[in-house]
Amino acid sequence: MGLKNILFLEYAVVGLNEQLKTLQNKYKLKKGRRFNDKNITYEIGVPKIIEDNIEFEVSSKIPQDELSSKERMKQYFDAVKGLLLKSNYKPASVKMENIIWDADKDTEKSRDYVKVNYRVVLQDLYSENEVAKQAEKLKKNPDKYNFPIVPGITSLQGRILLHAIKESIQKIGGETIRSFIEVNEKIRKKLCKSRG
Questions:
Q1: Which residues of 44-62 are buried (b: 16+ CB within 10 A; e: fewer)?
Q2: Helix or strand or coil: residue 194?
Q3: How much is the pLDDT for 105?
Q4: How confident is the model at residue 107 (pLDDT cuts 50, 70, 90)?
Q5: Cβ atoms 187, 79 nearer than 8 A
Q6: From CA 195, how far away is CA 39, in angstroms rounded?
Q7: What are phi and psi of 146, to 5 degrees?
Q8: Helix axes 156-191, 70-84, angle to 10 degrees
Q9: Are 196 and 63 in contact (CB under 8 A)?
Q10: 118: which strand partners?
Q11: Using an 8 Å Cβ cutoff, are 59 and 42 in contact?
Q12: Alpha-carbon distance 14 to 106, whole Å?
């Protein structure tokens, strides 16, 4: 991975982390990169660069205590997947995963999750024309804008570009998780006992 991609990834991580903090403050905080809304736990993975894309995962627990059977869980997953594939930011993949862990060293717990992978082309996170326009505005009126100093980045355009990447991934991350929460709530009301 070249220096450019390392910097892009660093700012994508910062942007997604800021979005995660916002969500953890809005909803019930859980350990790690997780939060809980209406008894469904969500987790936002750390982004990574694969080829010329930023990829990140978002997952949510399937409310299996509210579903009457494995078949109903599969219906829940299929309905969530169907709506997510129609959303503004279409996921690269939507999978159902089962995780088993030792809850208290004597009992194993099994949980099913919807795991969604999002892929954003790096160049879709910024506009070179917009970066140039902002740089021109800043040169004419330097007191009006406050772009932080970035160690190792001496050009104004470079700082603006990294800021644009951070802002874009933060916005995309927020929109994808809000959409995921809405989809889960809609399907939950439709399929879960005591919800609808």
A1: bbebebeeebbbbbbbbbb
A2: coil
A3: 60
A4: low
A5: yes
A6: 13
A7: -130, 85
A8: 140
A9: no
A10: 56
A11: yes
A12: 39
In three-state secondary structure terms, 138 is helix
> Which of 88, 92, 91, 62 lies closest to 75 in space, CA to CA?
62
Tell me the per-residue pLDDT of 3-42, one tens digit each, with 9 for 90 and over.
Answer: 888 889 999 999 999 999 999 999 999 999 999 999 999 9
How many other C-beta atoms are found inside a 10 Å radius of the C-beta of residue 68? 11
Q: How high does pLDDT run on average in the chain?
A: 88
Average pLDDT over residues 137-150: 77
The residues facing 42 across adjacent strands are 35, 60
Mean pLDDT value of segment 102-110? 62
Strands 48-50 and 93-102, how do they pair? unpaired
Six-digit token string for 99: 């995780």
The CA–CA distances, whole Å, from 69 to 50, 84, 110, 114, 193 equal 37, 23, 14, 17, 11
How many residues in total does the chain contain? 196
- Whole-angstrom Cα Rg for the chain: 20
Among residues 36, 74, 37, 58, which one has the least CA distance to residue 119? 58
